[in-house]
UniProtKB/TrEMBL annotation:
A single Gene Ontology CC term: chloroplast envelope
Gene Ontology molecular-function annotations: dihydrolipoyllysine-residue acetyltransferase activity
A Pfam family this chain is assigned to: 2-oxoacid_dh
Source organism, top-level taxon: Eukaryota
Residue ranges occupied by any 2-oxoacid dehydrogenase acyltransferase catalytic domain in the UniProt entry: 1-213
Annotated InterPro entries: 2-oxoacid_DH_actylTfrase, CAT-like_dom_sf, E2/Pdx1
Protein name, entry field: 2-oxoacid dehydrogenase acyltransferase catalytic domain-containing protein
GO process annotations (BP): pyruvate decarboxylation to acetyl-CoA
Source species: Coptis chinensis
């Protein structure tokens, strides 16, 4: 396992990448999570769903360059989410995350995590991701950069949601929960404006998350 991870990381260094960061207010998402977590919904599934819905509107961020010369606009939105396991790291994939309801997506995620930790994942369950999420927020990490997995166009590093003082529309100072996300992308297929637009859309979805439960 560690050998495969090492080879992939070395391969990724040959790809010209760049990074874009964004601050997202999470009060509404945190409130939604508190309401529906007793129904089995996980934060990982919520983030995957939000990301998938944003990718629907920005398909170039879901694209890839697998051989260095040809570019692919992936027809499916498959969100790979990094999971630490004994001996390394693996990225179980939530297939068609934009089309699956949040409750089914959460059940599928729990199933994938259990299989990953038991080392029972089948290849199609970890090798078909079109966009990757890496979330270290549960460890209190506020921001970090992630290395782009080979064969994909982008990976998003998600930090912890933390209270922050912000200016309000009426000129006052308020307290809001915010998280930092940093996206690493393949510059051969994705440009800065593409990521900026994608992150704006993602922020709108997370800050007004009503579509996540449709």
């Amino acid at each position: 396992m560690q050998g495969a991870v090492s080879r992939n990381m070395v391969e990724s260094l040959s790809v010209p990448t760049f990074r874009v960061g964004y601050t997202i207010t999470t009060d509404a998402l945190d409130s939604l999570y508190k309401k529906i977590k007793l129904k089995g919904v996980t934060m990982s599934a919520l983030l995957a769903k939000a990301t998938a819905l944003a990718l629907v509107k920005h398909p170039v961020v879901n694209s890839s360059c697998r051989d260095g010369s040809s570019f692919t606009y992936n027809s499916s939105i498959n969100i790979a989410v990094a999971v630490a396991i004994d001996g390394g790291l693996i990225t179980p994939v939530l297939q068609d995350a934009d089309k699956v309801d949040i409750y089914t997506l959460s059940r599928k995620w729990k199933e994938l995590v259990d299989k990953a930790r038991a080392k029972q994942l089948q290849p199609h369950e970890y090798s078909t991701g079109t966009f990757t999420l890496s979330n270290l927020g549960m460890f209190g990490v506020d921001r970090f950069d992630a290395i782009l997995p080979p064969g994909t166009g982008a990976i998003m590093a998600v930090g912890a949601s933390q209270p922050s003082l912000v200016g309000t529309k009426d000129g006052r100072i308020g307290l809001k929960s915010q998280m930092q996300v940093n996206v690493t992308a393949d510059h051969r297929v994705i440009y800065g404006a593409d990521l900026a637009s994608f992150l704006q859309t993602l922020a709108k979805i997370i800050e007004d998350p009503k579509d996540l439960t449709l």
